[in-house]
Fold this sequence. Notes:
The longest helix has 15 residues, at 424-438. It is globular, with a radius of gyration of 22 Å. Helix 2 packs antiparallel against helix 3 (63-74), helix 4 (104-114) runs parallel beside helix 5 (129-141) and helix 8 packs antiparallel against helix 16. The protein has 17 helices and 14 strands. The protein starts with 19 loop residues before the first helix and ends in a 23-residue tail after the last strand. Helices cover 32% and strands 15% of the residues. The relative contact order is 0.17. With 494 residues, the protein is of the alpha/beta class.
Amino acid sequence: MNDDARPAPKPQDIPPHSGAADEVNRQDPSRRSVLWTTAGVAGAGLGLGALGGGTASAAGRSAPDAVAAAEAVAAAPPRQGRTMAGVPFERRSTVRVGIIGLGNRGDSMIDLFLAIPGVQVKAVCDTVRDKAEKAAKKVTAAGQPAPAIYAKDEHDYENLCKRGDIDFVYVVTPWELHFPMAKTAMLNGKHVGVECPIAMRLEELWQLVDLSERTRRHCMQLENCCYGKNEMRVLRMAHAGLFGELQHGAGAYNHDLRELMFDPDYYEGPWRRLWHTRLRGDLYPNHGFGPVANYMDVNRGDRVVSISSVGTTPLGLAAYREEHMEPGDPSWKESYIGADRTISLVQTAKGRVIRLEHDVSSPHPYSRINSLGGTKGVFEDYPERIYLEPTNTNHQWDDFKKYAEWDHWLWKEHANPPGGHGGMDYIMVFRLMQCMRLGLVPDFDVYDAAVWTAPVPLSHLSIKAKGVPLPIPDFTRGEWKKSRSGMDSEKPAE
């Protein structure tokens, strides 16, 4: 640990009479009892099978039981702090960053943090020391002081979070680690941004909401697809009323990952493939859900209230293994239960409908669908096309490029951004770091993170209960009724 590392200030609003760890795990006994005993969900944690001490087949034995279990967790517990909706960051001249996880995603994202003025990478962490050292060399090559390296063991990230010279922790690790790492960061007084999904269980989502409110630290799902050029253009057009009254939208993560999930060198171990042995539902809803939720001002005037999911039989991964994996490969011990394609229908308080899809196990060109429709017309992506009245009246799609005037100011200012995914990664990091430097309200918050991730456990439980609609919690505890800013921001004065 570097000489400048020192204990972080004690987080605000954590009751002094109790340890922080006890506080974050404390729940109303009756509510917890219902969560862990109703409908055989004890092992599933409302969606999580193997990691909860039970089996995936134990969850959701009947539709009434599944609804009862979901309703128990959907009911908002008493607020333990103040809302984080509309709360700005503290202004600072330099944002000091710690990065946990330096595999494929982390290794590429560190370049973007280093490319933005006013950002310093102070510490890096990975259980594979070579990856951490490679990242550290990137930092020094960018002209910054050598960062501290945390690679001692799987718990060394806790020491990174304890440092007193870090403002923001970026978590980019296997999914099961997202929740404990986000929790640790906030308990040590750090704002935290997490890759998708932010957690795997509903009770974990509630804990992150409560902890963000108590510690006054932002906990954000770093959803890069919200910053896509098309997504941000559609967002501004929707808010300007070009689609009329919004009625429906769709988003997806349809991405053939079979080769990558069976590649021993691409992922650090088979962690992503193993989730298909644990859950039946939508493992990755955020890429499709986040943008459509923004179009519809979810948590900012509307909210999602229920989800109903169905799924196909799980054939794709086993078929790929049969064709490509040698006898004796460890994957032959795996039994896949994850639906090849999951389709969910989400309803909002205003009567809108959002369709979500997930498919990483079968042949399919990449698509996030990214569709929005209203009383005046519709946009559909992959390929991009639009039909709006009164301009279009001939039942033929129009060219979306004609609407470039509606591009968000971020894309007008950064017309050719560096980095992957068409530049959306850079736009996301730039905007987040800008909000932190200037003391602005972040574009999205812990409530958005919880809503965008809730389909992970809920779709699993709904599929087990043969598509029964399940309630989605109001993580804002009523704040959704208030209009407030989000992704459709105005360019700030530096």
